[in-house]
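Reminder to self: tokens first, then the designed residues, so the page reads top to bottom the way the pipeline ran.
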């Protein structure tokens, strides 16, 4: 079955008479066994790996050689799938063939996980020379001490375009210290540097939500973009790490007074826009009792031409994000989450708002190109105990592979989509691109 969702008529925006904007078409879909509560997706070659937002569930291995027929062909069990542990974030590289899984303790109230058991939170590295039978190479624990707690949340993969076997993981670990730089080696992850944006970067303290939520990097790895909820977006320099200096350090380029702040939560994640001094940023706002609720969070555009003074220049909302909106019911959120950007299109997952294709040609006036809100499957094994008020839960960083989009709906499974319309060639011509790594730029150099 194929569905088309989008805009196939001419609309005016900012005084411009635009050609038909665009549309999404379903190429393939797997409901992933109707298990529900699926987490991030990572792709390496013809295989996708899908984690779980709930405990006691394996990582699924999905054959995507035929994009029209993605299907589960295996799983990664123990030590994955422990009680109280979620395989929340996954990333992969093809050369060297590595899979990285971030395992963290999930919430009994928000996710429905067990309150005890499991292991120390960590990032586990696998050898995927045989992609259907990943082998554990090593595990990097991310733990706090008796006084200062910390927990991993997201990570960015950077692969050196000049030294292909060099792979770094940039791990955000809310707590103290909040950032770790870890090198993947043939024998497992190796810690290079811990850095704290409070003590060493001047970020002001205050409030449980004032955390380093995620980190991303420029293609050359020298510049970091720190999405610090509440405190704002900061730009930092990591050149000494990239250059292999004996004294490795991170230097904050944005003073606290110049950090970009917005919304009730602030920056969730920041994705560099290729070939432009621009970031596409999301804000994530949950419904009560977990968050502030309506009008949720949306996408912002930030000019980073001057790292000392990044500037908020535009925003993109859905109708559900109108300040006068009314709550749509319990456990529903229309909030932006993760995105991937080409030079002129931002592709953002939006929970109940589905997948959004946004024209960012003019960052001061982004507008909708297309929208995909899938027809929900009838039922799943585990409905979301915290956010299950909507049967659509678009969640992952979209991945472009060989001109097609791979995107994960936590409830309804993995979708393979084509995009046709304005700026469609930027997607169709891409071999690979994802918002949580520089692998698209890396692969273009090979």
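Designed residues (446 positions):
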């Amino acid at each position: 079955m194929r569905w088309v969702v989008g805009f196939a008529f001419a609309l005016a925006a900012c005084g411009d008479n635009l050609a038909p904007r665009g549309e999404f078409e379903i190429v393939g879909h797997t409901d992933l066994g109707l298990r529900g509560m699926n987490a991030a997706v990572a792709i390496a070659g013809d295989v996708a790996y899908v984690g779980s937002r709930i405990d006691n569930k394996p990582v699924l291995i999905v054959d995507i050689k035929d994009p029209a027929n993605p299907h589960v062909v295996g799983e990664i069990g123990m030590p994955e799938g422990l009680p109280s542990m979620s395989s929340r974030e996954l990333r992969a590289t093809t050369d060297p063939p590595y899979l990285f899984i971030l395992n963290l303790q999930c919430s009994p109230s928000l996710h429905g996980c067990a309150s005890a058991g499991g292991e120390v939170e960590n990032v586990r590295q696998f050898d995927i020379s045989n992609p259907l039978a990943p082998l554990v190479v090593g595990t990097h624990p991310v733990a706090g001490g008796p006084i200062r707690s910390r927990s991993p949340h997201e990570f960015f993969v950077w692969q050196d375009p000049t030294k292909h076997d060099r792979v770094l993981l940039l791990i955000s670990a809310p707590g103290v210290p909040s950032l770790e730089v870890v090198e993947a080696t043939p024998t497992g992850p190796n810690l290079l540097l811990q850095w704290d944006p409070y003590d060493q970067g001047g970020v002001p303290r205050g409030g449980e939500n004032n955390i380093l939520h995620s980190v991303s990097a420029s293609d050359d790895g020298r510049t970091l973009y720190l999405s610090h909820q509440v405190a704002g977006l900061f730009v930092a320099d990591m050149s000494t790490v990239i250059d292999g200096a004996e004294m490795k350090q991170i230097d904050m380029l944005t003073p606290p007074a110049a950090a970009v702040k917005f919304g009730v939560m602030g920056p969730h994640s920041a994705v560099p826009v290729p070939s432009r001094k621009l970031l596409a940023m999301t804000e994530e706002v949950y419904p009560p009792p977990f968050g502030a609720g309506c009008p949720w969070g949306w996408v912002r555009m930030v000019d980073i031409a001057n790292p000392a003074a990044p500037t908020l220049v535009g925003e993109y909302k859905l109708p559900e994000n109108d300040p006068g909106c009314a709550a749509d019911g319990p456990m529903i959120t229309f909030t932006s989450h993760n995105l991937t950007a080409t030079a002129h299109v931002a592709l953002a997952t939006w929970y109940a708002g589905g997948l959004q294709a946004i024209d960012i040609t003019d960052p001061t006036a982004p507008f909708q190109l297309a929208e995909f809100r899938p027809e929900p499957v009838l039922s799943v094994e585990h409905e979301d105990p915290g956010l299950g008020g909507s049967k659509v839960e678009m969640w992952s960083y979209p991945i472009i592979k060989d001109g097609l989009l791979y995107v994960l709906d936590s409830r309804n499974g993995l979708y393979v989509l084509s995009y046709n319309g304005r700026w469609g060639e930027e997607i169709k011509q891409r071999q690979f691109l994802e918002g949580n790594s520089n692998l698209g730029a890396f692969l273009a150099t090979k």
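The first helix runs from residue 239 to 242.
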